[in-house]
């Protein structure tokens, strides 16, 4: 394992955008990586873009957005989502440079290990793995509950088990099959949101009748009770929630190692992320708040259902139940993929036994996949038998873990660019460059760090911050205890490729 840190000069990783899993005589670091793992580059640009959206658009938008509106009001919610989208975009710009220069699967902790230090690399890997593992447990539960609407006499666990089998199979067949499945799931969500916004705008301008209005509603409901009806502090709390809601966009970095032509696909996916997030999230919020008084937006059921019912669309609740079910399947599909690749990458880097990095003839790391699924099942079990203790702590940790990863990404790009220039390379040699460096990079780092630390001022989320800080300390301690043990008990050197 590399012992590099930010004060030790290191040779920049050569460009690996053209690497393939086929044998080669190239001895660069990235080619050794590809040869050792045998992962397949089976994803295309369209897959990458849908995966980045599928990782973000989930039940939070379809079900919980009404609660957010009630807390911050219409304008406050729109402002919070706009700031959250800006933060995500800045992080993605820094990730783009790293992912194109070093398109390796499980990229976050590899970058952190190389540009910050091996202990930080281990912490980032565990943090990101935990984020998706806990999400897996909640999504499996949600799938079973959603099916209860149509099959009320069937036990919930039956449908949860069916979801588990489906998602495991999609990931086990091949990375191409996973990508196609995610493309379908994410497409349904995107179509539903576009239809919601389009129909909602027609209703807002009076082209479609709306219950309770004899004229075009327009946008009066947005400011009916003032710009910040509950004050500005709820807006601040909403920004924190929005950051968590936007976690998943960084999946682009995880998939870069298995994407065809990452030099083109990754920047394209990044640049389309911001405007799509703005369109889908802010557009939906504007439609909801214009057609439904904001104080009623989170009462009882999804604001999407309330809007569809007010317009008179038949079977609105069933339609949204189906859409939310696809959102759950999409989130669990992406979650299992991300968790698997993080386990695989830790094995590949020697942080855990290296046999976790083994792949089958289809390029699927089955041992890592089984380990990731086991983690999701344990999270599911804890949500059933220890919801108020173990699972509560896991949820608190996973909420802030994504922000920790964002902080690491931004700082790694700053160090990478500094070392790239110090080693005699020119900026023009980079196939993709973070625009506005170093201002964009430092803005991403500072805003993410502020989002993390300012959780302290939100009483409801203060427990999450304390738990996360303690967990980070435990992760560092675990790494250094492991390093001490290996030093005291050296084993036979492992066979490495030349």
Short description:
This protein is an all-alpha fold and 498 residues long. It has helices spanning 29-37, 45-54, 59-101, 107-115, 118-147, 156-173, 175-204, 233-245, 251-255, 262-291, 303-311, 316-348, 366-385, 390-422, 439-453, 462-488.
Q: Would you mind describing this structure in some detail?
A:
The longest helix is centred in the N-terminal third of the chain and has 43 residues, at about 60-100. The chain contains 16 helices and no strands. By secondary structure, the chain is mainly alpha-helical. Helix 2 (about 45-55) packs across helix 7 and helix 3 packs across helix 15 (about 440-455). The chain has one domain (about 45-485). It is globular. It starts with about 30 loop residues before the first helix and ends in a 10-residue tail after the last helix.
Mean of all residue-level pLDDT scores: 81
Biggest beta sheet summary: none
How much of the sequence is in beta strands? under 5%
The counted number of beta strands is: 0
**N→C terminal distance:** 15 Å
User: Which blocks of ≥5 consecutive residues have pLDDT under 50?
Assistant: 1-36, 492-498
Proportion of residues in helical segments: 55-70%
Briefly note the structural class of the backbone: mainly alpha
SSE string, helices as H and strands as E = HHHHHHHHHHHHHHHH
Structure annotation, total helices: 16
Q: What is the radius of gyration computed over CA atoms, rounded to a whole number of angstroms?
A: 23 Å
**What is the domain total for the residues?**
1
Q: What form results from the Cα inertia axes?
A: globular
Protein name: Amino acid permease
Main location: membrane
InterPro entries: AA-permease/SLC12A_dom, Amino_acid_permease_CS
Biased composition (Low complexity): 14-28
């Amino acid at each position: 394992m590399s012992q590099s840190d930010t004060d030790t000069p290191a040779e920049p990783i050569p460009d690996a955008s053209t690497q393939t899993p086929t044998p080669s005589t190239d001895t660069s670091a990235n080619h050794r990586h590809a040869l050792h793992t045998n992962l397949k580059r089976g994803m295309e640009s369209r897959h990458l873009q849908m995966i980045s959206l599928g990782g973000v658009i989930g039940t939070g938008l379809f079900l919980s957005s009404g609660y957010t509106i009630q807390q911050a009001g219409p304008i406050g919610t729109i402002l919070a989502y706009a700031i959250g989208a800006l933060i995500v975009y800045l992080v993605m710009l820094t990730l783009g440079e790293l992912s194109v220069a070093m398109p390796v699967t499980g990229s976050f902790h590899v970058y952190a290990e190389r540009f910050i230090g091996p202990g930080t690399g281990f912490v980032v890997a565990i943090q990101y793995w935990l984020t998706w593992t806990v999400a897996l447990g909640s999504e499996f539960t949600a799938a079973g509950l959603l099916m209860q609407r149509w099959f009320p006499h069937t036990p919930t666990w039956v449908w949860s088990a069916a979801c588990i089998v489906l998602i495991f199979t999609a990931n086990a067949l091949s990375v191409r099959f996973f990508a196609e499945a995610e493309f379908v799931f994410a497409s349904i969500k995107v179509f539903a949101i576009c239809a919601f916004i389009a129909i909602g705008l027609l209703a807002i301008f009076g082209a479609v009748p709306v219950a309770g209005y004899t004229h075009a509603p327009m946008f009066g409901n947005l400011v009916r009770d003032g710009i910040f009806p509950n004050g500005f502090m709820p807006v601040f709390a909403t920004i924190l929630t929005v950051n968590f809601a936007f976690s998943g966009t960084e999946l682009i970095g995880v998939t870069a190692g298995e994407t065809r032509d990452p030099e083109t696909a990754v920047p394209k996916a990044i640049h389309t992320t911001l405007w799509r997030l703005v369109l889908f999230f802010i557009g939906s919020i504007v439609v909801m708040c214009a057609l439904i008084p904001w104080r009623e937006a989170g009462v009882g059921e999804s604001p999407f259902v309330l809007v569809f019912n007010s317009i008179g669309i038949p079977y609105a609740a069933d339609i949204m139940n189906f859409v939310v079910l696809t959102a759950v399947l999409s989130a669990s599909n992406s979650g299992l993929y991300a968790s698997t690749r993080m386990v695989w990458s830790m094995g590949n880097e020697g942080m855990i036994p290296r046999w976790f990095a083994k792949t089958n003839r289809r390029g699927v790391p089955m041992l890592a996949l089984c380990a990731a699924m086991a983690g999701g099942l344990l999270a599911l079990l804890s949500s059933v038998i220890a919801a108020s203790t173990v699972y509560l702590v896991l949820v608190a940790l996973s909420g802030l873990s994504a922000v920790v990863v964002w902080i690491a990404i931004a700082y790694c790009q700053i160090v990478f660019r500094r070392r790239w220039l110090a080693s005699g390379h020119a900026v023009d040699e980079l196939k993709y460059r973070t625009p506005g460096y170093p201002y964009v990079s430092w803005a991403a780092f500072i805003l993410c760090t502020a989002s993390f630390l300012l959780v302290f001022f939100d009483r409801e989320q203060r427990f999450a911050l304390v738990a996360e800080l303690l967990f980070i300390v435990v992760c560092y301690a675990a790494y250094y205890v492991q390093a001490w043990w290996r030093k005291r008990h050296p084993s036979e050197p492992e066979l490495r490729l030349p």
